[in-house]
Amino acid sequence: MAGQYLDFEEPIIELEKKIAELKAVSKNNGIDFSGEIRRLHKKANRLRHSLLSRLTRWQRTQLARHPSRPFAFDYINMMTKDFIELHGDRHFGDCHSIIGGIARLEDWSVFIIGQQKGRDIKEKMYRNFGMPQPEGYRKALRLMKFAEKFGKPIITLIDTPGAYPGIGAEERGQAEAIARNLYEMANISVPIIVVVIGEGGSGGALAVGVGNRVLMLENSVYSVISPEGCATILWEDCKKVEEAAEALCLAADDLLKLGVIDEIIKEPLGGAHRNPEATAGILRRVLRRYLQELTLLSPDDLIQQRREKFRVMGTFTER
């Protein structure tokens, strides 16, 4: 996805172009520009640190939606072995916005369920722009029940703007499918680890988001509604997305402070799209740590811990 970058990334991209030009001249003409190249590399790294340390919540949202950001399938391919994808909800059909199956993650046999977007227009249409239909949520639940039957941990990778709001989806019970997943996930007797890898949009994300541990990649977002939807409802002006993003407090550090998530997973400098393999390696190590911890708990303890975790969210103290 070379050449795709966000507006606030432009100064970094310009420096990288200069570095690439110097390397090409050095290679073709035998001129040593190594000192200048090192200087520009240091300057680019300082600029990345400076830009990323003061990103607004809207800019975090843009990074979460970056066209080159790794998707669920990318992480599955980079982190696991022997992935076998399973299809269909055994009621209506197969939803291509939700993928899932069994795989090997280091020493564990796990079930992985992910929300998958597309890169080009053909794949975006095929994946319904990452917006699951009710049969997708029912497929996810079928796989989770399958995992429970065989005592396998469950990992879910969240990346959706929200559940698909079309007439057909509503006719087939979109709200019921989401509600059913919330109820059932609270009572599943195997470890569930949830990771927000991009966008976590409303009930469409939460329907696969009830876990013993909920994690977020550093530049992902998680909210009850998109900034665009919030701006349209509150101000009747979709251009007020920056104000909406600030009001929603949807960034990872916001949600860690609120107790909605358990940990922020650091990304390589510049974001996951800058080095997908390194991001997958970091995520794999974090998942290993939590698998080691959670697989020691009894089924009853897993259920109790998960219920209690979500029960206390949203509590407040009057002063």
Describe this structure in words.
This protein has 319 residues and is an alpha/beta fold. The chain has two domains: 7-54; 61-311, 2-enoyl-CoA Hydratase, Chain A, domain 1 (Alpha-Beta Complex), CATH 3.90.226.10. 49% of the residues lie in helices and 15% in strands. The chain has 14 helices and eight strands. The chain has helices at residues 10-29, 34-53, 57-64, 72-79, 121-126, 134-149, 167-171, 174-185, 202-206, 227-235, 241-248, 252-258, 276-294, 299-311; strands at residues 81-85, 98-105, 108-115, 154-160, 192-201, 213-217, 221-223, 263-265. Strands 1, 2, 3, 4, 5, 6, 7 and 8 form an eight-stranded mixed sheet that branches. Strand 5, helix 9 and strand 6 (213-217) form a beta-alpha-beta unit. Helix 1 runs antiparallel to helix 2 (34-53). The longest helix is centred in the N-terminal third of the chain and has 20 residues, at 10-29. The protein is globular, with a radius of gyration of 21 Å.
**Oligomeric state:** single chain
Strand content of the residues, in percent?
15-25%
Span of the ends, CA to CA: 52 Å
Q: Which stretches of 5+ consecutive residues score pLDDT under 50? A: none
Total strands: the figure is 8
Rg on CA atoms, Å: 21 Å
Domain count, please report it: 2
Provide mean pLDDT, rounded: 91
The SSE order reads HHHHEEEHHEHHEHEEHHHEHH
By CATH, the superfamily of the largest domain comes out as 2-enoyl-CoA Hydratase, Chain A, domain 1
The CATH topology of the largest domain is 2-enoyl-CoA Hydratase, Chain A, domain 1
CATH class of the largest domain: Alpha Beta
| Major sheet characteristics | 8 strands, mixed
User: In CATH terms, what is the architecture of the largest domain?
Assistant: Alpha-Beta Complex
Helical residue percent band = 40-55%
Structural class: alpha/beta
The number of helical segments is 14
Described by the principal axes of the CA atoms, the overall outline is: globular
